[in-house]
Amino acid sequence: MDKSPDAFRTISEVAEQLDLPQHVLRFWETRFNQIKPMKRGGGRRYYRPQDVELIKGIRHMLYDQGYTIKGVQKLLRDNGNQFLVAIGSGDLAAIEVIAQRKQAAVEAEEAASRPRGDDEMLVGQPRVKPGRRFFGLGKSEEEGAVQSGDGRLSRDNRALLQEALFDLLECKRLLDQVR
Per DSSP, what are the bridge partners of residue 38? Predict the structure, then answer.
């Protein structure tokens, strides 16, 4: 007799369904605090359907995608349980929605952390193109180079550096998504 999809599963049923040894499931419970089977008298474990779906996602990331346990823990911390559940069930639409929500949150956080002063505001194209003086290769009077002895950057150079920083942060974000 088959169980309904909403029925709780024993550790042996989950292990058989996911082709994992039971000791691996017990070990994962110690590494992923999101896996919380209900325990009855005698310590017998009963996994809820959402626990099984989460374990599927964890198994997929560890065994099929080559992630480490720390990598999967970071994915769970950054994206939540639903992300790995969607991965485990192969729901690409849900993965895309979660990724878009995460990207929107990151962009909102970056926008909130940007300075608001007119001096610091960068919008659109850079105000000046990088010249030889910007990279310390020479001084050009025709480019309007103003050298001050106090060690401070000019407004234009600060704008160029800030733009380069934003480009580097975007590259880092893209690399983090690939990992």
Answer: 46
